[in-house]
Amino acid sequence: LVSVAAAALLVSLKLGVGVLTGSLGLISSGIESSGDVIAATLTFFAVRLGGRPADPEHPYGHRRAENLGALGEAAILLAGGVLVAVDAIAHLARGAKAPDIHWYQFAVIAVALIVDLSRTMISVRSARRYGSAALRSNAFHFAGDMAGSLTVLVGLLLVHAGFMQGDSIAALLVAAIIGAAAARLVVENANI
After folding, report:
1. More confident residue, 25 or 52
2. Residues sharing a CB contact under 8 Å with residue 139, sequence separation 6 or more, in sequence order
3. Which of 32, 65, 160, 167 satisfies CB 3.0 to 4.6 Å to 50 for a cystine?
4. What's the Cα-to-Cα distance from 104 to each of 56, 108, 174, rounded to whole Å?
């Protein structure tokens, strides 16, 4: 539940500042974080369902609910990645204007990195403790979010240095990070 609240905070910060400044990198990161809200909610219910003991209808228990939750998370990630990639390619193709650079963009990225680092560490610890596939996939997802935030940071620094397409390229790289995370989740959980 704390993860859902943290993801909602990051969505509002990233999308708000992204729209305010015209940063496609922050907007794409905000879109990806909105998938986090859905994914964290899905994980919450999958972990609760997966922890139920066996019953007459499920003689082997409900453990695979977590893997199905992780596959649902992968589908959400993939959809967000495609949306971000299409928008980034459109920006690059038409030579869209670079975003305005302000200090608060960097503050939002710093907050996102701190929140995602703490969520990653907590999810890894919990996944090991409970042997949870859903929590392990959440940890991987949050680590991907950190990589995305670092990519957006580099893109904004490039724009600040005069490379006007840095933000759009960063958004495209965020889409690739999202796609890689989704592919890993699909492979890992579909095999199970």
Report:
1. 25
2. 119, 120, 123, 124, 127
3. 65
4. 56, 6, 20
